[in-house]
Amino acid sequence: MEQAQEFFDSKKPWSKYKDLILDYYLQPYLWKIKNLRKPILVVDCFAGPGRFEDGEPGSPLIILDKLGALHEKGYKVTGYFIEKEEPLFHRLKKNVAEVSVPSIPRKGDFRDFVAEIAELAQDSSVFVYLDPKKPSQLLFEDMKLVYDNLHSGRSVEVLINFMSWSFLRGVWGNQEKILSNGIVIPEHPLTLRFDGIAGGKYWQDIAFKSQVSRNEQADMLAKGYADSLHTWFKCVLSYPIREKYESQFPKYHLIFGSRHSDALELMNRAMVKARREFVREGFIEGYLFPNQPEKEVIKLTEVEKVIVDTAKKVGRSAWRNLRVQATISNPCIYTDSEFNKAIKGAIKKGDLNSNCTGTKTEENAEVWLV
């Protein structure tokens, strides 16, 4: 518990990156989702105290700040915040009470409140934020009751801190217990625990049989987790968050799930914006000349190549679908507007054909390879 409280003394660089993404996404999401004319519920399952000791806002206050604009206009919005640790919950309750936006603070393990959240999701648009401090705090199916609302056409979105690197370190640290002659013991309690966190057994081949770098293993693990989320979510996006740009391994992957491609593009835009802020602070701000890595300099010709390569995979496609598929294949690098420019450029150069002029974005137009 002492360690958990120390974590909230000041915001770490990777936490700032993560909170930027949450901040950048919530505003456009909320203003879009309000058109459903349903109550809006934003759930933070590992809320912490709401504010760091150094004064920086934590996720609950970021959430309430974004909900506040809609609350002032008369929309029914609520922040739902769960914290297990007594001292942190006491601070959380005090901090959210100072904001004039409806909120529900809950003390305890978030699993104790899943049924209540699932019931609220019957009549509300729900965004769930899951930000555990260690992998074992979140099992893949913990929120199943909430996600199952999607099968009834309800609006549920999720942003998960999937602790890919910590998960793999835990697996490798226990390999003598869970391996027998190089083969995973399927019924070992630790094996079952790792299965439960990952939502399947795919991690076993990644951790012990793949012949790639450990950084690539973390990305493969996150992809496996994201693919598993397709059980509920049509659109899933995964992106690694690092402590520093040059860090070899990710701190974790942020994984987003929604049933709408509109939401996927909004989240991608938020992640790109946060990434570029991260690069600006590390390589541009305070320097006489920008010195960001070459791959962080956006070149239209490279975006056009991504578009043409994507068109080879998807075939004849609606303009908008081509853009979405390019986003899924190349997450958190380019914005939808940059993809639009690239599609126009490829049409003008003759690299793509279209039943539109290519002089403006025509989302329902068809695009295909020459």
Write up what this structure looks like:
The chain has two domains: 279 residues, Rossmann fold (3-Layer(aba) Sandwich); 81 residues, Arc Repressor Mutant, subunit A, CATH 1.10.10. It starts with a helix and ends with a strand. It has 15 helices and twelve strands. Helix 4 links the parallel strand 2 and strand 3. The protein has a seven-stranded mixed sheet, sandwiched between helices. It has a three-stranded antiparallel sheet with strand order 10-12-11. Strands 6-7 form a two-stranded antiparallel sheet. The chain has 370 residues and is α/β, with parallel strands linked by helices.
Largest sheet: 7 strands, mixed
- How big a fraction of the residues is strand? 15-25%
Rg value: 22 Å
Domain count: the total is: 2
The whole-number mean of residue pLDDT values reads 92
Structural category:
alpha/beta
Summarize the structure.
Helix content is 47%, strand content 15%. It is an alpha/beta fold and 370 residues long. The protein has two domains: 2-280, Rossmann fold (3-Layer(aba) Sandwich), CATH 3.40.50; 289-369, Arc Repressor Mutant, subunit A, CATH 1.10.10.
Explain the layout of strands and helices:
Layout: H1 2-7, H2 13-33, E1 40-44, H3 59-72, E2 77-83, H4 86-97, E3 103-107, H5 114-120, E4 125-130, H6 144-147, E5 156-162, H7 164-173, H8 175-178, E6 179-180, E7 183-184, H9 189-198, H10 202-208, H11 214-229, E8 235-241, E9 252-258, H12 261-284, H13 300-314, E10 317-318, H14 319-329, H15 336-349, E11 352-354, E12 366-369
Helix pairs in contact: 2-3, 2-12, 10-11, 13-14, 13-15, 14-15
